[in-house]
Write a structure and sequence with these properties.
With 88 residues, the protein is an all-alpha fold. The protein is 76% helix and 0% strand. The protein has a single domain, classed as S15/NS1, RNA-binding (Helix Hairpins, Orthogonal Bundle).
Length: 88
């Protein structure tokens, strides 16, 4: 679970304009942060299969958003991949 302060920081780093909270870049950044947090949780709690399912759904959603960005805005996609340190 991300705190409001963390969410605000992630949004401000990746938003296109001042009031942007829902662009693909922001969504990917938020999902990446949540995936990192959930991965840490699952390392401690290996038998938590409900959370593992949620993690897989988040990874799938992030992949779909990244595919969309790669097709629509390749420059933005490359910049986002580099900023979040993700594999292509």
């Amino acid at each position: 679970m991300l705190t409001k302060r963390v969410k605000t920081k992630v949004i401000s780093e990746h938003q296109r304009h001042e009031k942007d909270t829902g662009s693909a870049e922001v969504q990917v950044a938020m999902l990446s942060r949540q995936i990192d947090e959930l991965t840490k949780h699952l390392k401690k709690n290996a038998k938590d299969n409900h959370s593992r399912r949620g993690l897989l759904k988040m990874v799938s959603q992030r992949r779909k958003l990244l595919d969309y960005l790669r097709k629509r805005e390749p420059k933005t996609y490359a910049k986002l991949i580099k900023a979040l340190d993700l594999k292509k």
